[in-house]
From TrEMBL:
It is a multi-pass membrane protein. The lineage of its organism: Bacteria, Pseudomonadati, Pseudomonadota, Betaproteobacteria, Burkholderiales. InterPro entries: DctM, TRAP_DctM. It is found in: Cell inner membrane. Keywords: Cell inner membrane, Cell membrane, Membrane, Transmembrane, Transmembrane helix, Transport. Belongs to the TRAP transporter large permease family. It comes from Bordetella ansorpii. The chain crosses the membrane at residues 55-73, 85-108, 114-135, 142-166, 172-198, 219-240, 246-265, 277-299, 319-349, 361-381, 401-426. This is TRAP transporter large permease protein. Part of the tripartite ATP-independent periplasmic (TRAP) transport system. The complex comprises the extracytoplasmic solute receptor protein and the two transmembrane proteins.
Amino acid sequence: MIAGILFALFVALMLIGTPVGVALGISGTVAIVLSNLDVTWFGLLAVPQNFYAGLAKYPLLAIPMFVLVGSIFDRSGVARRLVDFAIAIVGRGPGMLPMVAIMVAMFLGGISGSGPACAAAVGAVMIAAMSRAGYPGSFSAAVVAAGAATDILIPPSVAFIIYSVLVPGASVPALFAAGMVPGILTGLALIVPAVWLARRHKLGTLEAHLPRPPFWASLRDALWGLAAPVLILGGMRMGWFTPTEAAVVAVFYGLFVGMCIHRTIKVRDLFTILREAAELSAVIMMVVTLAGIFAWALSTLSVIDPITHAIVNSGLGEWGVLALIVLLLMTVGMFLDGISIFLIFVPLLMPIANAYGWDPVWFGVILTLKVALGQFTPPLAVNLMVSCRIARVPMESTVRWVVWMLASMFLVLVAVLIWPQLALWLPHRLGY
């Protein structure tokens, strides 16, 4: 009865437009109160305790730092220099700028780990460049949003950090390593429809007439940006610092590059950068902490075990259950952001994964792939919102282009489902 009220209240609050974090916190609190009517005040103590417990986790310290890194590199001019270098490598021609946009987004994934931050940084440079080359704004927005979705797969990744907090059996280094190959495959899979669509519809007709940047000058300008993921990921691999410490190192490195090397960040810009990062980090952390109340209510009411038992014994079989999970997440991914999906569904899905003996690291990559798909799946696609705002086009105008990129990324998801070693080979090779 109380479990039914918990889910009904959560859905009702979502339908009337309540923010996800608030809906999680209110429904969880109401369920806790109803389950402790005889000792209400003692039951209510679980609310602040779990609120604090959801926040007081060391890996979560990396989130505001990586959000800050994304804001810093957005303003440092690194994205523009990486774009010039990529164009110098691949040249000019039909479909080359979309390829460059996806390549640069993949590379920035090794710096910020945030899809919206990457969409803002790449979109600010690439959407204007693609417009000058004759690409329609809707196509440019779709390409940038899809490319930025690779950021939560290619380490460092905010999504992997949150998953590691929810699933202690999956360490952050192992998840980072596991996301590398699927992230690269996803980027390559997105390049194929982007280039094909550009050539099929004769988009970017002016691109071949634009100047090609000189290779060596572009390389010299891009070196500081190219060194960032090497420093961050190489330092973690060498044991110089933990993922959380790597985020702090990345912040100071980004500030050094922006203020001392490129000199695109002034002292007066720091307040704006810190404010933007603080606002976004606060939203993420509030959702995480309020979801802790919801998760505690689920475990206290013993909701998870009966659901797990019913699904495992439903007769669908392992692949049927896996297909059901993918279908469920594809549906909710159209309406919820990735962090909310993790916080709501990981506590429900992990017992099912444990029942079938699925590797928690591999399962985390599968869930993150689904979240990446959701980041540019209308109607609530955070990456697409950012890129559409930059391109000044309505989101519905991008659908004709987005569907092809969603299909190509979905094929990568299917490949990782069929061949788990695509995700697990590298962490095993590195000894995680």
